[in-house]
């Protein structure tokens, strides 16, 4: 393995370790350099800044989640509501699986979840996830207008985000939490769907959300 690749991997391993232990915003570049046994200037050579380090750590997990969501939406085994429930559970499970980095991966310097453009690569990954969510919502409400779809998707996103934040600091295993909470995710999504279905005038989804 070339020396530059070894150094880059050491930096990534060190950053991941420190971010998990102290949180992304609390860790400095110099701390990462000490952990990686390199100079802090080396980090800028490979990653430009700490945000690029975060992007590098987040890319593979986020792409994996996107692929899982895409697979669920493309499946012919599930109906529209089941697909929305499945991608919701995938997002919740992802949040708990990366509970110590979840906020850095999904919320640090994040744009609005329904924005169309962003200048940061990590936000592009986040927007892709939200787009999968809107596709799932479109399947449930195929004749709904764009604004209604986006607003409902945001409701689902905020619901899942709140659940993740509620459970992320527990030391309990992810599988154990998921076993208890997945039924709640299902009921919550179905409840929101029912509310929209019963609201013929759409007044339950304010346009200013």
Number of separate structural domains? 2
How large, in whole angstroms, is the Cα Rg? 19 Å
| DSSP, total strands | 0
Biggest sheet features: none
Beta-sheet strand percentage? under 5%
Low-confidence segments, given as residue ranges, are: none
Structural class: mainly alpha
Helical residues, percent: over 70%
CATH architecture of the largest domain: Orthogonal Bundle
CATH homologous group name of the largest domain: Tetracycline Repressor, domain 2
Overall mean pLDDT stands at 89
What overall form do the CA principal axes indicate? elongated
In CATH terms, what is the fold-level topology of the largest domain? Answer: Tetracycline Repressor, domain 2
List SSEs in N-to-C order.
HHHHHHHHH
What separation lies between the terminal Cα atoms?
51 Å
CATH class of the largest domain: Mainly Alpha
Count of helices? Answer: 9
């Amino acid at each position: 393995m070339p020396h530059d690749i070894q150094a880059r991997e050491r930096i990534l391993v060190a950053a991941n370790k420190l971010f998990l232990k102290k949180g992304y915003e609390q860790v400095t570049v110099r701390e990462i350099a000490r952990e990686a046994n390199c100079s802090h200037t080396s980090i800028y050579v490979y990653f430009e800044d700490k945000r690029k380090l975060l992007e590098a750590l987040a890319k593979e997990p986020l792409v994996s989640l996107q692929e899982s969501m895409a697979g669920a939406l493309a499946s012919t085994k599930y109906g529209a509501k089941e697909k929305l429930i499945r991608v919701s559970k995938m997002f919740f499970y992802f949040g708990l699986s990366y509970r110590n980095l979840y906020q850095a991966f999904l919320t640090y310097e994040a744009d609005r979840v329904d924005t169309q453009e962003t200048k940061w690569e990590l936000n592009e990954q986040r927007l892709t996830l939200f787009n999968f969510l809107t596709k799932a919502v479109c399947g449930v409400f195929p004749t709904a207008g764009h604004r209604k779809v986006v607003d409902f998707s945001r409701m689902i996103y905020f619901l899942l985000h709140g659940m993740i934040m509620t459970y992320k600091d527990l030391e309990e295993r992810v599988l154990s939490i998921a076993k208890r909470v997945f039924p709640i995710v299902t009921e919550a999504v179905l409840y929101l769907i029912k509310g929209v279905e019963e609201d013929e005038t759409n007044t339950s989804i304010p346009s200013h959300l």
